[in-house]
């Protein structure tokens, strides 16, 4: 993803049939690094059941330096390892992708072979393997949240998040409180979304308009040069 408005989906990476998920993720990131590292600043990895609101993603990344190793999403902890839940999407800066490729070159830091050792195989999840590789490079998974502490990357559908909020707040809670507690206005992803709900989200996010409100759909994102004090010259 470029911050000057560019967005691209990479061509498919050919993976031998029956290969393990860790190899698929590792090879895909290697492909992105080898072919796109100089063309794009941010890289998002997500499942085919993850709905991504690209405009909110670009807004979230706008003020961040892509050379800094950011490893962002919805974080879950297991024992002493923080990892990003894959179904919510994983956002990596260009700096993080470079760190990951360096880690792959050292099998003591990151498993880079098709045959995983007992320790690595015990982790099972590619999301955990990725987090461990980056942790060994001192790049740590971070939660992406709005100013109210609500997750921007979600591993559930809007419907499931609303149901969860209703259960937590009780049936007597007002509709406004439920919506406020459910999801961030700047949500970037919703995960585990069935195909029919993808169409519902597309309509709700990009087509539905409330009469009387003004909308500007033609958003452009640009880097803004920092303001310098004239006294510094």
From TrEMBL:
What the record says about family reads: Belongs to the glycosyltransferase 31 family. Beta3-Gal-T subfamily.
Is Transmembrane included in the keywords of this UniProt record?
yes
> Where does the record say this protein resides?
Membrane
Q: Per the UniProt entry, what species is this protein from, by scientific name?
A: Eptatretus burgeri (Inshore hagfish)
Q: Which InterPro entries match?
A: C1GALT1/C1GALT1_chp1
Recorded GO CC terms: membrane
Q: What is its main location?
A: membrane
Keywords from UniProt, A to Z, are: Membrane, Signal-anchor, Transmembrane, Transmembrane helix
Q: Which GO molecular function entries does the Swiss-Prot or TrEMBL record give? A: glycoprotein-N-acetylgalactosamine 3-beta-galactosyltransferase activity
Official protein name in the record: C1GALT1-specific chaperone 1
Q: Has the keyword Transferase been applied to this entry?
A: no
Membrane topology annotation: Single-pass type II membrane protein
């Amino acid at each position: 993803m470029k911050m000057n408005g560019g967005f691209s989906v990479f061509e498919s990476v050919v993976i031998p049939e029956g290969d393990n998920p860790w190899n698929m993720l590792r090879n895909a990131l290697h492909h992105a690094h080898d072919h796109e590292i100089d063309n794009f600043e941010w890289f998002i990895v997500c499942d085919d059941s993850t709905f991504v609101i690209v405009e909110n993603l670009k807004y979230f990344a706008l003020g961040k330096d892509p050379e800094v190793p950011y490893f962002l999403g919805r974080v879950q902890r297991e024992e002493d390892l923080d990892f990003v839940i894959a179904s919510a999407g994983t956002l990596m800066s260009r700096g993080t992708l470079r760190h990951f490729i360096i880690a792959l070159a050292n099998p003591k830091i990151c498993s880079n072979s098709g045959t995983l050792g007992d320790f690595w195989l015990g982790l099972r999840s590619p999301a955990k393997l990725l987090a461990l590789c980056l942790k060994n490079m001192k790049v740590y998974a971070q939660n992406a949240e709005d100013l109210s502490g609500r997750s921007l990357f979600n591993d559930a559908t809007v419907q499931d998040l609303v149901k969860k909020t209703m259960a937590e707040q009780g049936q007597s809670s007002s509709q406004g409180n439920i919506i406020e507690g459910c999801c961030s206005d700047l949500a970037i992803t919703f995960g585990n979304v069935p195909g029919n709900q993808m169409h519902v989200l597309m309509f709700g996010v990009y087509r539905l308009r409330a009469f009387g409100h003004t909308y500007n759909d033609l958003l452009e994102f640009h880097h803004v040069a920092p303001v310098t004090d004239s006294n510094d010259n």
